[in-house]
Amino acid sequence: MQPTLFAVDTNFLLDLALPKDIAHDAHALIRRRVSGAQIIATQTVLDELEHFATQDADPAMRQLATKALKNIPAWQITPILFSDAQSILAERIANDLRDKGIIPEEEVSDSQILAEAALLDCQILLSADKHLRDADRTRLSLALQSSGVAVVIVCKPVEIVSMFAGR
Description:
- This protein is an alpha/beta fold and 167 residues long.
- The chain has one domain: 3-Layer(aba) Sandwich (Rossmann fold), CATH 3.40.50.
- The chain has helices at 10-16, 22-33, 43-55, 59-71, 84-99, 108-119, 130-133, 137-146, 157-165; strands at 5-8, 38-41, 77-79, 124-126, 153-155.
- A five-stranded parallel beta sheet has the order 3-2-1-4-5.
- α2 (22-33) crosses α9 (157-165) and α5 (84-99) packs across α6 (108-119).
- The mean pLDDT is 93.
């Protein structure tokens, strides 16, 4: 049986860098309750964190992003770097999601993160991002299937907590 793959959005890692956030509860529940779960951070997530850590105008954001980057190994989150071929394929899928209006046109990074998660066969993408959460699940599933990649379900950390807390 293959492990359950969870991808995380940039905002999830930034939330983990905060002292107390629902992301901590979701992360802990996945670790305790989902046997063999693997949590990954995709190339675009890592690139966004690096950008925030080095170039954001807000010193608090730079500090938070730096803390998130530093703690990825301690949180047992696997960073995934893409080959050029994988990056090109993910970009095509992301463009398709935006062209079809499933993800807003201006949300390039969000569509890229979702495409990367699908390309890696992730079942769940943890995100508090409204653009990802509010994507029409049926249209998203059909678009991902037509691209030949896994269907990814976008869940807020609070949804993970409510799903697994009662088990």
